[in-house]
Design goal:
about 425 residues; alpha/beta; Rossmann fold; six-stranded mixed sheet; 13 strands; about 45% helix; binds guanosine-5'-triphosphate; binds magnesium ion
Length: about 425
Amino acid sequence: MRRRTGSTAIIAARADERPVDTEEIRALTEAAGYEVRGAVTQARAEDPGTCFGVGKVADLAARAGEADADLVAVDGELTPRQTAAIREALPDGTAVFDRYRLVLAIFADRAGARRAQLQTELARLRYDLPRLKARSDVQGLNRRAEKGTPLDGVKNRIADLERKLADLPHPAEQHRAERREQGFDLVTLAGYTNAGKSALLRRLADDMAAEGTAESDSEQHPDAATVTAAVGDRLFETLETTTRRATVDGRRVLCTDTVGFVADLPHWLVESFSETLSDAAAADAVVLVADASDPPPELREKVGVALDVFDGQGVDGSAVVTALNKVDLLDDAALAERREAVADLAPEPVPVSVREGTNLDRLRAAVVDRLPTERAELLLPNRDGAMGIVSRAHDRAVVESVEYGTETVALSVRGRPAVVDRLRADADALDG
Ligand SMILES: Nc1nc2c(ncn2[C@@H]2O[C@H](COP(=O)(O)OP(=O)(O)OP(=O)(O)O)[C@@H](O)[C@H]2O)c(=O)[nH]1
Ligand SMILES: [Mg+2]
């Protein structure tokens, strides 16, 4: 959000009781490109009309005026009425965003590709629609959308965007089918924002290069051109999914990094970005990356929500590996507390430090355990066609042994069931 460089904000948070946490709204505001010039907090029940009450809103307006703030960022969701009341009180030129509007601004700024742009606009209009309805009700306009009214325009645009999105070629899905055919296993990295997903992706892919598998150097992966897994200590560093190729225990894996979850996102917003989650549902294994440096209750909450979301998307629980990342920041006692906190949710979490490369082998082994695997012993007649099958086996699966006799070639292979089935069928065809 370089283009908002120089923009300033005041953050405001309310809770029924102290303490009032401002950490996340501050992080979101900074992620949206604002410099936070001050914070106003309040511990009391919510005021239905203004959220903070008239007096506190006046304070907020004064602070915004002193700081010459471009934005007041309010933690939580404001009703349309509260938004209007706060904006009314603020100096001219100071906008008010609630948490969701802020998240949308971040997504919009980071949305590069066509699909992401359309999704972002759609999410924003879905957010605006009830607010626009409320406003037109206040103005006494017909609440049913008449042709030519702004409300009507927004509804048409939503329908239009939904159509466009449905028609847009879905490269991820297209590639997915092809890759499976080629013997790739699909692994998705998912979890809350800032957990270390992109950093892990880089590790897995880098490790592949370090292992120097035959295919890693020359053959260009179709996704290679679009690939960079940005790692940053900003929220929502990753907006579009990124896929890289890795080799785990001899298997060819396509590893997809996804958009991070953020606490308390409303469902409609998550839906707008469900591409991420459909990736998870289509994967053979999902690595849930959690930031173990979070306090135990927060860690527990996040792991629980993520597992619920996966479940809602039809991800099989047995396909999920939970990685407790950033253990370099914890001592043994602190790590034990984290394990305890998630014990009933994630039975065998793998503690890792992506930064220091700790325990990544264990994580890889846990992933491989979840990949569908079949073994076959094939006995091929020793003639030309056999070599083709052996080389396909090397390309698409793991060849455990191959023995060349005068009459026959004995091939022992393991890999994706579909790939192994195909090799078996080819072998049968050669025989007959
Ligand atoms: N101390 C420590 N920091 C880590 C570790 N792994 C990642 N980080 C840091 O955590 C921050 C977030 O990492 P990312 O990989 O960008 O996180 P992400 O999950 O991709 O975040 P989003 O793209 O926003 O969803 C970065 O500053 C990383 O350097 C780790 O093992 N230890
Ligand atoms: Mg990321």
